[in-house]
Write a structure and sequence with these properties.
seven-stranded mixed β-sheet, about 240 residues, alpha/beta, binds zinc ion
Length: about 240
């Protein structure tokens, strides 16, 4: 199972909501693209399902990890110009499932933010790269977000208590998936690479041990660019799906 070829992205996008499982997911996969969106005047906000409490590579006391990683994600967001960063409560790193409860909370978030576009992780596993992109939390968040976009967020009869609270039905027109198999929509991030790198370096607990981060990223993003027709450039790549 894979994605169909990407749709042509909508041109009149005003708001984007980025939904990911862990602090740093959006930055590894998409910070250069997010920086471009911010430059274009698009209002971008982040919603994190967990605080990445199972992450880290050193002897930081484990109980400090959630607050530390929340602060790191806020600093990383600031590096690409994103001001709104929210976290769900009650989800633990490593045990996220596409539950009805998660879906419902994502519906509320969508109705609050009213995004034209959602960026999230792929619900499809990359069998050629289990470590990293195919973390089960990523797959679960991609699946729950997709189910929140359709049908619940746009169905006025789903969760009537939301409408009563002023969270009216909202149709997200487009989903961008990061980290999935065979992404075919490239975004040239050569000009925003420095901001992506700054965002990733803000995740000190995750990246301080990666002494080759800069060159490792350049190599990966140059390879992606080359394979998608942008030789000599750096690119992030996605699958774009229309939902209407
Ligand atoms: Zn992750």
């Amino acid at each position: 199972m894979s994605f169909p070829p990407s749709a042509t992205p909508c041109q009149d996008v005003q708001r984007v909501l980025c939904v990911f499982a862990h602090p740093d997911d959006v930055d590894f996969g998409a910070a250069g693209t997010v920086a471009h969106w911010v430059d274009q005047g698009i209002e971008v906000s982040y919603l994190l399902v967990t605080r990445g409490d199972a992450g880290g590579f050193d002897d930081t006391p484990r109980e400090r990890m959630p607050a530390l990683r929340e602060a790191e994600q806020r600093a990383a967001a600031a590096a690409v110009g994103v001001k709104q960063v929210d976290f769900l409560e009650g989800y633990a790193d490593g045990s996220v499932t596409p539950s009805l409860q998660l879906r419902k909370e994502l519906v509320a978030a969508i109705r609050r933010a009213r995004p034209d576009r959602i960026l999230t992780s792929s619900p499809l596993r990359r069998w050629d790269r289990i470590a990293g992109p195919s973390h089960p939390d990523h797959l679960a968040v991609g699946e729950a977000t997709t189910c929140a976009v359709y049908p619940d967020a746009r169905n006025q009869f789903a969760h009537p208590e939301f409408a009563a609270a002023g969270l009216d039905a909202w149709t997200v027109r487009e989903i961008w998936y990061a980290g999935g198999p065979d992404p075919d929509h490239a975004v040239d991030i050569t000009d925003t690479f420095d901001r992506k790198l700054a965002a990733l370096r803000a995740h000190v607990s995750q990246t301080a041990h990666l002494t080759e981060l800069d060159s490792m990223l350049r190599e990966r993003l140059a390879g992606l660019a080359e394979s998608l027709g942008l030789p000599g450039r750096l690119a992030e790549a996605f699958t774009v799906v229309h939902t209407e």
